């Protein structure tokens, strides 16, 4: 007759001194998280339910419930910012991912100067935003000083300099191109890392069975790389959705709010119009949308793990 040993809970295996030591190790991180993340979120949520202006900032802030949310959702600027945010994010993510994936497949093969080329591409991602945004603002300058207009006119593609940043369609196009330039190396790096983890035996076996490159890519590479692809798309979506510095430096939401996104709209309401409650409401709307995306991503990853 076999005697089963009684399982001892994990917490009973450690002494109180060891448990307290563990709490002491996580205490700094918990305090940092509470002060830098949790408290600002709670304070911002509370502010969005009150009428907070310059007059009431120091005290006496009346509770108005969801009025701030109703007012900002009725503003043409905020409605336009929601559409611009979605459009800017989706267009950037599509091209960042496609170009990044193509470069990841290219640099997964060993050839001369592959490592150096990959390192040079990462410079685009490592350069501070204020630096490359200022450079791209000069590239898209609408007068003769813009380098893009200079080449277009010299090649006789256009007769006169194009006003990139002073027209609605041109300004958004310029921002998307700049953001694609910035995000491609990030996508390439993560996807290239995922490609290195794929077992070569599967590709060799498929090649022996007569599968061509397209078939191997479709039936082996993509399915095995699906978790990495989900992570890359989700991270890229979050980073692009909350973009602020790039838009603020290049267009500041103009012209005529044509490049206004939720982050810049919140900044404008808070620090230009001094409607702190409305600015907090816009920030919370952006947070809710990001939470929906994050939950959707977790559901997809759980479904993929179950399958």
Summarize the structure in words:
This protein has 307 residues and is an all-alpha fold. It has one domain: MetI-like (MetI-like fold). 71% of the residues lie in helices and 0% in strands. The protein has helices spanning 16-48, 67-74, 76-107, 114-126, 129-139, 147-154, 168-196, 200-208, 213-224, 226-241, 245-250, 262-272, 276-306. Helix 10 (226-241) packs antiparallel against helix 13 (276-306). The protein is globular and about 75 Å long.
Describe the oligomeric state of these chains in a short phrase: single chain
Secondary-structure element sequence?
HHHHHHHHHHHHH
What is the top-level CATH class? Mainly Alpha
| Shape, principal axes of CA atoms | globular
**Beta strand count:** 0
CATH homologous superfamily heading: MetI-like
Helices and strands, with pairings:
Blueprint lengths: L15 H33 L18 H8 L1 H32 L6 H13 L2 H11 L7 H8 L13 H29 L3 H9 L4 H12 L1 H16 L3 H6 L11 H11 L3 H31 L1
Helix pairs in contact: 1-13, 2-13, 3-7, 3-10, 4-7, 7-10, 10-13, 12-13
For the structure shown, list the relevant keywords.
307 residues, mainly alpha, MetI-like fold, 13 helices, 71% helix, 0% strand, globular
TL;DR of this structure?
The protein has 307 residues and is mainly α. 71% of the residues lie in helices and 0% in strands.
């Amino acid at each position: 007759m076999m005697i089963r040993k009684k399982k001892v809970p994990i917490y009973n295996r450690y002494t109180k001194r060891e448990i307290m030591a563990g709490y002491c190790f996580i205490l700094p991180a918990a305090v940092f998280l509470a002060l830098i993340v949790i408290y600002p979120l709670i304070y911002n949520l509370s502010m969005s339910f009150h009428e907070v202006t310059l007059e009431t900032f120091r005290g006496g802030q009346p509770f108005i419930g969801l009025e701030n949310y109703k007012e900002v959702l009725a503003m043409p600027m905020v409605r336009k910012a929601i559409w611009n945010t979605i459009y800017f994010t989706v267009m950037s993510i599509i091209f960042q991912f496609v170009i990044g994936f193509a470069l990841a497949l290219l640099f997964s093969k060993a050839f001369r100067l592959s490592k150096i080329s990959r390192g040079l591409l990462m410079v685009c991602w490592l350069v501070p935003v204020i630096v490359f945004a200022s450079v791209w603002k000069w590239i898209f300058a609408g007068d003769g000083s813009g380098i893009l207009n200079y080449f277009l006119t010299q090649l006789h593609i256009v007769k006169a300099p194009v006003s990139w940043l002073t027209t609605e369609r041109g300004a958004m196009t310029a921002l998307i191109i700049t953001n694609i330039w910035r995000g491609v190396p990030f996508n390439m790096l993560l996807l290239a890392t995922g490609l290195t983890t794929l077992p070569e035996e599967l590709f060799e076996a498929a090649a022996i069975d007569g599968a061509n490159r397209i078939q191997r890519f479709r039936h082996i590479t993509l399915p095995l790389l699906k978790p990495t692809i989900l992570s890359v798309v989700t991270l890229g979506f979050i980073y692009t959705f909350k973009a602020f510095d790039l838009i603020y430096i290049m267009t500041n939401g103009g012209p005529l709010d044509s490049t206004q996104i939720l982050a810049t709209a919140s900044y404008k309401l808070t620090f230009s119009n001094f409607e702190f409650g409305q600015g907090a409401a816009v920030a919370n709307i952006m947070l809710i949308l990001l939470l929906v995306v994050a939950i959707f991503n977790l559901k997809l990853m759980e479904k993929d793990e179950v399958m």
